[in-house]
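User: structure tokens for Sigma-54 dependent transcriptional regulator, please.
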Amino acid sequence: MNSTQKINILLIEDETEQRQILKSILIEQHYQVSDVGNGEQGIKLIQQQTFDIVISDWKLPGVDGVDVLNTLKQYSPLSSFILITAHGDASHAIATIRAGADDYLLKPFDKTTLLFTIKKQLYAQSVERENQTLKQQLKQRKQLVDIIGRSPLMNQLFQRIEKAAPTNATIMINGESGTGKELAARAIHQLSSRSNSAFIPVNCAAIPESLAESELFGVEKGAFTGATRNRPGVLEAANGGTIFLDEIGELPLLMQSKLLRFLQEGTINRVGSTAQQKLDVRVVSATNRNLILEIEKGNFREDLYYRLNVIPVTIPPLRNRPEDILPLIEHFIQQCCDENNILIRQLSKPAIKLLLSYHWPGNVRELKNIIERSVLLSSEEIISVEEISGLEFEKPNQSSSYLLPENGLNWEDHEKDCLLQSLAYCNNNKTQAAKLLGLNYKAFLYRLEKYSIC
Ligand SMILES: Nc1ncnc2c1ncn2[C@@H]1O[C@H](COP(=O)(O)OP(=O)(O)O)[C@@H](O)[C@H]1O
Ligand SMILES: [Mg+2]
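Assistant: Done. Predicted tokens:
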């Protein structure tokens, strides 16, 4: 039922005269009324169409009110059942309410009572519908709850995902490695109307260039030596659902133009076939690279970039959202203990402090690894700071990934900047900051003095 449609009422009453009177009262109120004189006909109608309300006499020839009620609850659980019963039969009324009727009318009843009882039911239905919508929204939020995060930055991300997910727009997720890009892509799929269809993750960096086309678009038997059978590609496998193209920046240029054609035309053909297939696939991609730079260098097609990036989603690095570290630690401890059937472990206060002050170059993935290893290796219920610091943390990116700006730099300003930034990342913890720059502690202190820092 919606507000522009008429309320649909089924009236079941074997006394013709009474039925006519009730019917005319209801029609006068602009309700849409179907009326029948016995339970059998009533049940048939209930099986064929949906009524907002069924008003039925209790004593009917043949099948009686209880059978009608049971059919209604089976076929249309949200509809209301109002029972009409003779004054002396109040015990029936109570029994029927117990059996699931929503209300009853004792004969003789007046027009006001009848209309009031109907209004009450319509109101109850609107509350129930609202309730169901809220429950649905709650369920959706719960699915996002798998992504742990309570920082304002993550809340912004959740809002963006909730808004973007139900659309069909392409989404490009940007973020450093380990920030949860795949998790976000799965959440987008879960929150879309495609959630019952496939989610196919594809790591573009892992496909050898020579196999990329058949991997993406499929291959027809005999297309090349080795193609011994027809094989669908990942795009076909994702039909009706979502494809997640991870590390999209690694896709070879030739594949980029083929992917662009698919995005423009919505069709593919398998390698070795001229038959075009229309596909309905939502494309979510992810990268930890700056694709604008790759475009400038000629490594990524600009037109494809705009096609893929209709809605950009950025996941902030963990070091920019320290509020999330503690909830993530708790989440991973719980998860790891559950999965391995071990009693719940705890971190000592100094261990927590150490983790809170770390800059997490490997982001959430690194934190997860550290927690898992410490939980599994520790023999004590409380994990000490020594056990944590004995673990190997990820090495900061090696210098080869650093690009010298084209117009050069001022070495001393640069060095001072590195020192200050490393201290800021590590909450002024000099041991950590030295590690971050790959310097031993003494060498680090020497440089701090050189620039009169601290
Ligand atoms: N916010 C988060 N809440 C819970 N787990 C997370 C979160 N972010 C990342 N993870 C976990 O960290 C690991 C790395 O996440 P992933 O989505 O593969 O990162 P990316 O694709 O950005 O490299 C996965 O095990 C993932 O489940
Ligand atoms: Mg990933």
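User: Anything notable?

Assistant: The chain has 19 helices and 14 strands.
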